[in-house]
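Q: Sequence in, structure out?
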Amino acid sequence: MTAAHHPASMMAPPRLPDGSDLVMRVMPLPADTNSNGDIFGGWLMAQVDMAGAVLPARIAKGRIATVAVNEFLFKQTVSVGDLLSFYARVERIGNTSVTVHVEVYAERNPENLQFVKVTEANLTYVAIDANGRPRPIARPATVA
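A: Exactly. Output:
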């Protein structure tokens, strides 16, 4: 069996050349559809927000909150049965905030497997303390 026909290679999500991390995978359900039968944009936005928070939470080492959706592009509709892969890449680390870029790919059409980019977004999260106020993000020590 060649690598191109090996079941494991056919089921793996695409690897992104920009160093993004696969942070979440999910399959939308019929309850997530709008009146046209497509997945609600708001449902997808919520999933992107959760996926986007993974790396900032690691960097902040504690509580974070979404403070901005800087950009959100819907490129293609999402359908029930699409397996969505969410990739995140840190764009910027500030004193209290982290900005990430999230790309979402749909794995669809099992007979003729396709990976299609359906959404991308830039979001900013802020590290917060127990009172919900911004707190500094600890920077790793630099090697002298």
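The chain has a mean pLDDT of 89.
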